[in-house]
Amino acid sequence: MENTYPFKVDFENLTFVAEIESSNLFSNYFPLFAKYQYEGNGYAWEGLIVQIIEKKNQELLNYISFDPEAGCFYAKCSNAEILNEVLQIIVPAFSNLEVLEDYIQNADRERIDD
Question: InterPro entries from the xrefs (predicted)?
Fold first, then answer.
């Protein structure tokens, strides 16, 4: 996958990161999360990403470790195949703000720790 925006991907280390407090991501994503009373921090991204993956292929969650922080979302996959499958699910959701808004609107709020 060539375009992984808004995630930075390290295929060698099997990680993907969103630097949420960077000016570009903050200006694009914070208002959308705030519209639905979410902080939009790394914990909120994790909760939403987990729910998006569950809808597409819940089994993948067994192979991802999450390590969010207030200003950053970070995750590591167990192998390259899993990383690619995860990216195929989350990049389209996060690169299209209308699609992302639909996921945010329908998310289980109690499962998003922000």
Answer: Imm51 (IPR028956)
